[in-house]
Amino acid sequence: MRDTRESRLLLVLLIAVAFALITVDIRGGEDSPVDGARQGAATVFGPIESGVSAAVDPVGNAVSAIRDSGDRHDRLAALEEENAALKARLGSDDRSRSRLKQLDKMLKIAGQGQYGIKGAQVIAIGAAQGFSWTITVDVGANDGIKRDMTVLNGEGLVGRVTTVGPDTATVLLASDPDFTVGTRMESGDELGFASGQGDRPLRVELLNGKAEVKKGDRLVTFGSQADRPFVPGVPVGVVSRVDPSGGGLTRTLYVTPYASFTKLDIVGVVVEAPKKDPRDTVLPPKPKPTPRPTVTVTVTPSPEAPVDGQNQQEQ
After folding, report:
1. C or N terminus of the chain, fewer CB within 10 Å?
2. C-alpha 305 chain-centroid distance
3. Which of 121, 169, 124 is nearest to 149 (CA)?
4. pLDDT tens-digit profile of 274-292?
5. Across 32-41, 114-123, 201-210, 237-246, least confident range
6. b/e per residue 281-304 (b: at least 16 CB within 10 A)
7. Structure confidence at residue 248 as a pLDDT band (50, 70, 90)
8. Alpha-carbon distance values, 121 to 75, 100, 106, 229, 304 (Å)
9. pLDDT at site 256
10. What distance in Å separates the CA atoms of residue 195 and residue 177, rounded to the nearest whole number?
11. pTM for this structure?
12. Per-residue pLDDT tens for 124-161?
């Protein structure tokens, strides 16, 4: 279009009409007279927008993944520095050497499972909430701790966070009767639910009443939606007894937990879940069977004992 007086007048007229339509649309709200036209435009241009979005999203997702990866790396690096500071604070006397050993075992589990953990010390047992099997640890909201985070140590599952203060947190132990965690059998997909029984072994109800289970089989956590309250792959314990299958819908097991709930000192709160399920990689190596010695009995005849031929000649 040539830049003439008529074209400029037409442009001013179109702008005036556009402002008028915007004013009518705003004042009309949901009953706007141009709502039908807007919906028609959405029908026409919607597929085009979706196509453009589909083409752009992978690029956006890739950029987001790179950014999240960097954030995760920075977060893990910060956790490593904090755990190193805890390690230095423990000192070098006999008790501290025991604590350092616990911390090293816990960091090994965290590395195998790719868990980002915040190391902590147990500072009290029991809690005001009335739970019979709880501990209090010396980390809280100021350290990034939140409710329903998994707690472990160098042996395996310890419990979950139930209450968080600024600098401390309460952990419900897996031995508490109110504690329940989803489990998975090692090298298989048999799922169940483990419940605490105080100072007795954990009770596990397998969903498959006909599952083949034997003493010595091992269990790990199955994990929760969004990894709260439980991340997957944390060692739970070893089967110590299996109830006979009575043809029921479930099967009952009794599991000796890896963690000793009466000797807790250094624990870790999982503040960063693994990117993928570690499955059975966090379980400790299976103990090698001890060979039984073979006893060989050799009978040596006495030189004074008479032989049968001599006995017959004497008679």
Report:
1. C
2. 74
3. 169
4. 999 999 999 998 877 666 6
5. 32-41
6. ebbbeeeeeeeeeeeeeeeeeeee
7. confident
8. 21, 12, 12, 20, 74
9. 97
10. 6
11. 0.65
12. 988 545 557 999 999 999 999 999 999 999 999 999 99
User: Is residue 196 within 8 Å of 177, Cβ to Cβ?
Assistant: yes
Contact present, 187 and 266 (Cβ < 8 Å)? no
Tokens of 295: 């006893």
